[in-house]
Design a protein that fits this description.
The chain is an alpha/beta fold. The chain contains 16 helices and 13 strands. 46% of the residues lie in helices and 16% in strands. The two termini are 31 Å apart. The model has no long low-confidence stretch (mean pLDDT 92).
Amino acid sequence: MPNKPKILFIMYDGLTDPLGQSQVLAYIKRLSVNYSFDIVGFEKPLIYEKQKEIINDAIHNLDISWFPVVYHKKPAILSTIYDFYRGWLVVRRQGDKHNYDLIHCRSSAIGGIALAAKKRYGAKLLFDMRGWWADEKKESGAWNSIIFHPIYFYFKKLEKKLFKKSDFALSLTKSGYKEILDKKLKNSSSLAIIPTCVNFNIFKKYDSRIRNNIRSKLGIKEVEFVILYSGSLGGNYKIDIIVNLHKAAKRANIKSRILLVTHANKADIFLAMKAKNIPSDDLVIVSSNYEDVHLYLMAGDIGVIDYKRSFSTIGRSPTKMGEYWACGLPVVSKGNTADVDSLIDKYENSGFIVKTETNEEYDGIINRILMDKVNKELLRGYSIDYFDLKSGVDAYNDIYEKCLSGESLK
């Protein structure tokens, strides 16, 4: 299709990451009907090697060009500067060939590259902030050392500059949207909310046969109550709710297992659980491709969301909430976690909010889970209602059109 607008989509994480596949590739495949994309992302070496052919197959014959930049973790700081410089060289090389009409900047982390590209090519800029990235780094403990203080302030300054220079900005949550308006970082006319979405072709409807097959494969008995967690662990991702639910189940004389679907280091998980007096036999840890995660979700009885309590939490839109619901899992989450509280209030019998974090509260949650019959079809309906991928694609398409036309901006 001739004369499609050319879009540079630059992302701090990688396209081979689970979120890259669920929250970037799923959108862009559909948007590429109307737009031509160059994607530049920073790929973790091990995941990249395992997943690169899957990505290449997925974008074959689509108007999408992928330019992966291998991410380096060491030496700290210097490796990141080096990677960002390499990312800029890729952007400049491709942009000089055909120019860009729009820069879609996914995260403030790579905002410096996005701003340089906007200036060089005179392109429109969409700041897709994805949450308060610098605050997430600081609050997770990753930037605890005094050496990171100037880096934190640099990225907070860059964040403000991105709001100022961008033609449009996006928040994942209503809480984050309100914070942006309250701080006067952006006007409501050039700011919108697009929550993370779920691909229902991948996160399929609950199937009891799949549940039984996965449990058999993992050595989990049908009578066992399974507390499931899917996603990253460590830093801003905690194990408190998982541990406390498991202990509450034990107090109620319920046979309980913990199923973790994660790429996190198994040895680290076992050590962390041992420190909480959780026997290793009670743990099942699985590393899964994105396309297979739904199979393991169906083996669970309750899905856990557990973010560290901090300022940056207001910007987090838990993708796993929609994925849990899509596969028939009610959720448990701490209170004041972005928009999770309001969603559980909105959708009846969809999950539980932990407020006091006492044994009595966890005992009550376990009792309610066992007493209330879970309506898996209803939960999937909730997910479709709020996390529908098509709605997200339509929203992005509308915002692209507004950015490129200058409509209702600033």
